[in-house]
Amino acid sequence: MHKKKKRIEAVWGLGMVAPTIIGLLVLNIIPIFQTLKMSFYKSGDFGRGDIFVGLANYQKLLADGEVWQATWNTLKYTALVVPITIVLAIILAVLLNAKIKGKHLYRTIYFLPMVAAPAAVTMVWKWLYNTDFGLINYVLRQVGLGPVNWVEDPRIALYAIAVIGVWSTVGYSMILILAGLQEIPKDYYEAARIDGASSIKQFFSITLPLLSPTLFFVVVTSIIQAMQVFDAIYMMVGITSPAYQKTVSLVYLFYNNSFKYADKGYGSTIIMLLLLMILAITAVQMKVQKKWVHYN
């Protein structure tokens, strides 16, 4: 009877997780192996009859300066967006965790960009950045400054796109950190106040250590998301733009090779490079987290 009960529980448990497992297999795991296989092939004429080329795509990738420029752009974008997003998210979460009026409304407002379609968000920012009619340059003119070519100037285009990345994701990170803050027992803060600890001392001695598991999750997921940047760059910067070489990301390069140049084999090779980079960075984070993440 006991074994039968355990078997029923196991069947129910498998039934509950089956949709997620099937979804991961169909949408994530199987496509990874299909992409790996495709990276050893070259698309035939008019997209028909893939031709096995072995390691030729990887040899081409190693000698392709555009790929390494895109790699640098992707890493630079990630280095710009992730730290700023997390710092702002922590500040906002701490402020909205306090007793202030309308905090639920503020939380909703900050989270809204995450709900909006990336294409719609980028179109709004594209108009804001418009050299002749954009609101940002209009304000600059009003204060006596000249207009800035936010999107076409290779020196600043990636920074302008990074601003969109921060604005779009800070709300999501804030909500996760806020949830982590609300899990911290209030007793710690009461004991710290009795001992005479200031608010800053409480933040660094109590809040950050107890929030570290949540921060670790936010850092890992934020880096993975930033490394896959595509929408903002694709809609902001065209292939003929002067800023293209300084902004093109690995996913944008994959899109161009796979769909514009009809070479899905080489596009798959570029994505395999991105996958290896994400795996390596995540592995390093998993190793380093033992030194700064404190689990209760």
From TrEMBL:
Record has GTP-binding as a keyword: no
UniProt cross-references to Pfam families, sorted A to Z: BPD_transp_1
InterPro entries: ABC_transporter_permease (IPR051393), MetI-like (IPR000515), MetI-like_sf (IPR035906)
Protein name: Multiple sugar transport system permease protein
Chief localisation class: membrane
Residues passing through the membrane, by range: 12-33, 77-96, 108-128, 156-181, 202-226, 266-286
Membrane topology type: Multi-pass membrane protein
